[in-house]
Each structure stands twice: as structure tokens, then as C-alpha cells.
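Morning. Coffee machine broken again, so started the prediction first thing and wrote up yesterday's gels while waiting. Chain of 421 residues, entered below exactly as on the submission form.
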Amino acid sequence: MLDPDNLVTEHFEVTRRHFLRLSAVGAAGLSLVPGLAHADEGASTDALARAVEALEYFTPPDKFGTVERGTPLPYTHPVEKLREVGMTRATWKLEVVADPDKPATLENPLSKEAGNALDWDRLMKLAETKAVRFLKIMTCNNGGSPLGMGLWEGVPLREIVWLTKPKENLRRLFYFGYHNDDHKQIFRSSLPIGRVLEDPPGEHPVILCYKLNGEFLSGKRGGPVRMLVPDAYGFKSVKWLQKVVLTNAPFANDTYADGNNDVDSAMKTFARFMSHPTKAKVSEPLPISGLAQVGMSGLSKVQYWLSPKGTDWPKDDPHFTTAPWRDADLLPAPTVWKTLPDGKLPSPVLGFDPNTNRPTSWPMRNTLAHWAVLLTDVAVGDYDLRCRTIDANGIAQPLPRPFQKSGQNKIQNVSLSVLLS
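Came back before lunch.
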């Protein structure tokens, strides 16, 4: 999960300019900003600026949270073994074949046996004209916070599917990563063929991914090639990809189905705290910053609610829908991307204007947004502090999908004590 102690400078320039602008307009301007209506000019704004200056937008690859499987972990093999099993760019091959049990009709399956499996050089040749880049947040559906945010690059999977010349009887894809040639360790996932061949409006394609934040994938991040499904939780983006099976089966075969997980659930929208005080003096301003995962339903706002400890709440309102929530301040898109080479976004990136290299909308679905708020004049006492999102349809977290095995999105609650001194 994202660790605020490990997040450094990327978002600093955005937030520094943002709060300098607020200081410049003075208290009257501050009163117009949601969540900052009670902020005092000067020191209070500086306190909030300091709280958010540690945020960055993209997560360095070595600081991504990791959900791993395998004994031993596949990328930890000696170099000779990695070469042998196709875990290096020079030896990687991808088979795309028909399911022997419920076969799709293919005129040109890609297999090692036939000598035409997709290799690295052929993938890079396709990338010269077919590669795409897009922003995506990576999240485990059973985790409480995102694992990391990245700029991903790859070739749309459909380009490889069409190389097999499919004719009929194709309903799903099963795909597999390398896991020590041990059947009990195999990790697999699946997608309907419609999601691979056609993107919903505003959605990005499923890709064979080989780069993260401008660098080739390391073994730890799933390299040399992994699946990357932009609108899905992490288990759909199988690492160490080695085989795709085209099938006429109408059902999923995902490993995650064994854990009572909803294997076809798109990512949800939710908010989390990143920086917040646990104790403060009564006279101190309380700067708070957080992140929001922007899922399938988009994001219109982030809200917070400060309530005294022990506040009774009606049992028929478990999601606090009638609480006195207040709007926080959503931060704008970065203009400097320091995690990337040269601090610049490459061009083109899906969802960005090719002339300005700025996002065509913000926040973007399947990505990360930062938010902040400054609390002042909080009375002495012990409090619960909660945050939530309102999606682009006007629906408050955790609705419309509160079922946690389709993705964790509970309302987060942290404690705050305000003392006399």
C-alpha cells in the first residue's frame, strides 16, 4: 500500500503553487475554497502546504506495494534459470493458442511447438506503431489502500489476438504467468473477448505491458511482460505472462475466484487519509491530506466529517449518508512529473491533449487524485475523522457497490485528540 513516509517530491510543485495562490488571494479567497472556509491567512495555509508537500503522483517502481505469489518468487531465480524459463527479454516467448477442451477456431495459433510464439523482438516491432501509454492505479481488491500509481506502456492485446486469425467460437481468454512450472502454483486470470477487442467509451485497452514510468519492467514488477487491465483490480494484471488461451468457455477461471472474490468487478472509487494529526493543541490548525482512487464511476468530490468520539448513529444508516459531511479540496493535475525521466510525460499519453500534454479531464478514471483540507477552531476533545468520495454519478462511498469481496471501499475512520496544551 502507498506509504506517506516513502512519498517524496512529485506533487510538491503542484501543491506549493496551489497554496501560494490561496495565500495570495487572502482570507476572502480562502473562504471560496471548499474545505478551507475557516482557514486563516498565512500560517494556517503554510501548515497545509507543508502537509501535502511530501506527496508525489507517480510511485517509483521500487516503492510500489506488492502482492506476490510463488515459492520461490519467480524473479528471484538465478540468471541462468531466468533465461531458461523465459523470464528475460532475450528469451521471453508468449504462446496464444486455442483451449484444448473448448477450442476457439484459430487459423494461426502462436506456439513454441510451431516456432511462431510471440517473442520480445516481434513485440517491440509491433510497439513501433501500436504502443499506447496510459495512467493507472494498481490496487488489490482485498487491500485497504492502493499499491501504487504509474504510467504504463504496452501493445494492445487485441493486436496479438488478431495475429492468430480467430474465426469463431471465441468467448473468453484465459491467461497464465510463470510460476515455477508447478501446477499448484499457477496463477491465472481471464477476460471476456469483448473487453479485449473493444474498449468501452473513454476506457483504455488491455495491453501486453513492458514499461512502467518510462522504464522496462523489472522482474519484481512482473517483467519482462505482464498483462495490464486498466479498469480492473491487480489480480487481472497477471505478472510474468507466458500463455494466453482462447476459449469458447463461457466462464471465468481466475485463481482469485477460489477466495470468494468477484473476479469481474471494475475498480471502485474511494478516499483514504495520507497525512493527519493524531494529537494537536486547541490553538493549532490541523492540516490533512489524502488520496482518492478514481474507479469506474469517476470522482466529483472528496468529503470529510469530524465527529466527537462516541457519537451515536442510527443503525439503519450504516454508511453515514445523513452525516454533516463537508467538501475537501481536490488538487489539480501535476505539471511536473519528477518520477519520470526528465520530469516530463512522454507523448502521446491516452487521455491527454497531444498539443498541451495536459489531461483532457481531471480527475481521470482508474487513476489517483490528491485532496487536502485545513481544520481550524476545533474544540478540546476526542474525535473520529472520516473521509469519503462522491462519484461522478453523485453516489457516496461505499455505495453503489458496498460488498467488500468486489473491492475494499469502506469509509476510513481515524482518531484525533485535541488538547489544551
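The first strand starts at residue 93 and ends at 98. Going to sketch it on the whiteboard this afternoon.
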